[in-house]
Amino acid sequence: xxxxxxxxxxxxxxxxxxxxxxxxxxxxxxxxxxxxxxxxxxxxxxxxxxxxxxxxxxxxxxxxxxxxxxxxxxxxxxxxxxxxxxxxxxxxxxxxxxxxxxxxxxxxxxxxxxxxxxxxxxxxxxxxxxxxxxxxxxxxxxxxxxxxxxxxxxxxxxxxxxxxxxxxxxxxxxxxxxxxxxxxxxxxxxxxxxxxxxxxxxxxxxxxxxxxxxxxxxxxxxxxxxxxxxxxxxxxxxxxxxxxxxxxxxxxxxxxxxxxxxxxxxxxxxxxxxxxxxxxxxxxxxxxxxxxxxxxxxxxxxxxxxxxxxxxxxxxxxxxxxxxxxxxxxxxxxxxxxxxxxxxxxxxxxxxxxxxxxxxxxxxxxxxxxxxxxxxxxxxxxxxxxxxxxxxxxxxxxxxxxxxxxxxxxxxxxxxxxxxxxxxxxxxxxxxxxxxxxxxxxxxxxxxxxxxxxxxxxxxxxxxxxxxxxxxxxxxxxxxxxxxxxxxxxxxxxxxxxxxxxxx
Length: 504
Description:
mainly alpha, single chain, 71% helix, globular, 19 helices
């Protein structure tokens, strides 16, 4: 039974990650085991994608309307395949980053288990399965947030847990009402509603808004700027670049595979969700513009940029959904690159404030070049891939016929792009062109490293700061991927367009 392949990328990382945490074999064996497990997960994910497309795997029939099952479709394959590849890079980056940390077994164990739960979200064939793995992903990722066990980290972990559970509970409450009007439980393109949509519109709104909490949609966004700065940089990378996308995948399931775009188009649900997305895009950009700490600025940027994805989803059009999928891919690559670059700077210099990055392009040129490439993609400047995503989102808004969002959407996208340039480009300019008054041998003020044992950290004097292959390789792969996909990514784009057209 080929469909059994779907079990491997879910069970393998969950079981092996838990075993790694309990076993705690020591640093050398820990690295080897984490490398093998992450690579093994990637292989399992792609074997499942190649062998199990459009297959259904029943898991457990709890009761009427309570069956657990997997079904691999286009959106699930896209998300799981992307996550498995990026996760390998993050794990390798963490080898050097975690050298000065304690509790490595817990970190790598939870990191790998989170990937298994994330894959379960992608493979979920119905709401019950989606909800189960969505909550499992939350519980596995909470230890990543409070890893340092400092007071602010523990507080951030509890805030993250509280908001995640609140959002999931709102979604579950909506489902209890929705299921009365559905003629099945499995996700299906076009939806599973029977009869008039009017009675279930509040339920659909609750499910979409609840799952959007994980993506940082206002007003359920406060956990993001609190959790990201205190988590280790590799954890921040997957939280921002991938785990937030789990919320997007869940919203896509609700909107396109449960309610159906035809039923929601032109209703108050669509307009309210679009309004929330537009407000989040603008507000997140403004908050990021004002923030003085690098990781917190990137965190505020995260819920703004992920709301681009949700905006495209809520347009309920093929062009909008296509732009949304493009933004999902490029944001995952870019935001992982930005957080890993920030982690490399913090690890090697101890600098966490933006003002202390002056001249960093001369100290860590390869890291800051990658930071620049990822920034170009987020802003949407060609040839970086983010330009294509924002172009199709704007075109999708103008063609969607969604009232005032026909012009408001493109305007907000343009303003947000300018704000994104405003809070990212000065970092790059100051890093590479610090000015005549900057002394290369000076030791700028630096905050203590976020969670490590580097002491006061900072600079050791003149000369370049080097990173190992473990740090450099993931940054190089992510930076080059953004350029290559933006320039010659037509086969990938056609695949994404096919996924979007099959759902609308």
